[in-house]
Amino acid sequence: MSSDLVKHGVDICDDKFVLRVSKDKLQASIVVKDPQSGVTVGDYDVNELMAEVRKSGVSFGVLGSPQPKDDGSYCVAKGVNVVHGENAKVRAYVKPCVVRAPKMKDPARDKVDFRELGMIVNVPKDKLLLEKVSLTTGIPGKTVTSEVINPKPGKDIVIKVGPGVRLSEDGMKAFSDVEGKYMLVDGKAAVMTEHLMSGDVDMSTGNIVFVGERLSINGSVEPGFKVKGKKDVYIARGVQNSAEIIAGGDLEIKGGVIGEDIVIQCWGNVKIDFIENVRRIEVRGNFSVSDTIIQANVRVGKNVMVTSGKGVLIGGKYVVGGSLHAKEIGSEAEVVTEIEVGINPDLEDRKQKLEKEKEIWPAKMNEIIKTTTALKKQQKEEGSLAPAKSELLKKYNEMLPEVMEKVNALTERSDALELEIEQTINECVYVYGKVFPGTRVTIGSLSRTLTSLEEWTVIHFDKETRQIHCRAMTPEERQVIPT
Known about the structure:
Blueprint: H1 2-7, E1 10-12, E2 17-21, E3 27-32, H2 46-55, E4 62-68, E5 74-78, E6 83-84, E7 89-92, E8 97-99, E9 122-123, E10 128-133, E11 138-139, E12 141-142, E13 148-149, E14 165-167, E15 173-176, E16 180-185, E17 188-192, E18 194-197, E19 208-210, E20 214-217, E21 226-229, E22 232-235, E23 244-247, E24 251-258, E25 263-266, E26 270-283, E27 287-300, E28 304-306, E29 312-320, E30 324-329, E31 337-341, H3 345-382, H4 387-422, E32 429-435, E33 439-443, E34 446-449, E35 454-462, E36 467-472, H5 475-479
Parallel strand pairs: 8-16, 18-20, 19-21, 20-22, 21-23, 22-24, 23-25, 24-26, 25-26, 26-27, 27-28, 27-29, 28-30, 29-30, 29-31, 30-32, 31-33
Antiparallel strand pairs: 1-2, 2-3, 3-5, 4-5, 6-11, 7-10, 9-16, 10-15, 12-13, 14-15, 16-17, 32-35, 33-34, 35-36
């Protein structure tokens, strides 16, 4: 019966109508068999008509009454279409940079040089990168002849991950396992802790910010560009004027750093070949220069070593938390070279801030005392003060205790700081060659400007005389030059 309904149709209602089912069996319709007969659907009782439809094999989705269609027929039943399953897919929470790289035969041994072809996408550790959206099995359909239409289930997928990315236990989510650069390598999500740039930092790259373990630049940093690395930074061909370099770990710069508008900040140790006319270098760890440093403003938390190559330090100011070692300091032209050792940059900041406060609060206190004294004298002589002066006297009387407290606290802080600075007097300046006149050395709270040439000398604080002296290096000190 079902095949007849699809192929030819079945006569119903005394052969006045033909009942047909569509090829997909999702719709049943009736049509007047002889259009010239004048028979219409309205000539028949609806219930009897629909009963004939059911009797003829249309058993599902039968409508309450025939619904007219554009082609002149009437729809009497509608099936339910099947909904096939959807394939599993991956939802991305971070858009990665995409690189092309050769495949690794053995990931445990073979190394691939990943070179950046797009912007760096930095991600923190434990960042949700990808999530798998499960496949669906679909929803069955049903024909008007009550046949079930089985859906096709969607296809499953597996999230592929590379180094630096971990999957959740159920394989549904991918997280960054390290902090670094997120990218896709051969279709696999990866977070790399190292970033290598083959060329310069310039207009083609823009500023560089990287949060991984090591940022390597095999070129130079062009004027006006910024490089920020959360950990170690390596620059192969120098830094040009107006550039800014920030490293949260160690910093190494091959070549020169030249230009007064350059800014270098490093929380670890720094190695640079040569430096000239740099306005601001801040280093938390040790600082070493391989050849020369000329006219720089440097603040170092630990030791300074200018003992490789020429080992020359000329001009500028150097605030050093530890000791300073150099082959040669100053020049025959007696260029002013200021060196402060045993002065941690943090102590120096506190000292400068304290000096500024000293310029304000004692003067403020003296002004208040002087004014209140004059107003009280006038009040005593005249018996009363004008309202404005009376209000001023009241205001100053209220302010004076607070200002005096600030001045006293300032004195206590100053004494404590001087004591802290005094405890750093064991640091020295070691010169493994010549130190020229014009060099000014500060140790603790004392300073001395050299007026004569000294050679192979140690500039130190003499605790007995409480003065800064130069002494000859010992044979042991001459033999061991730190680098």
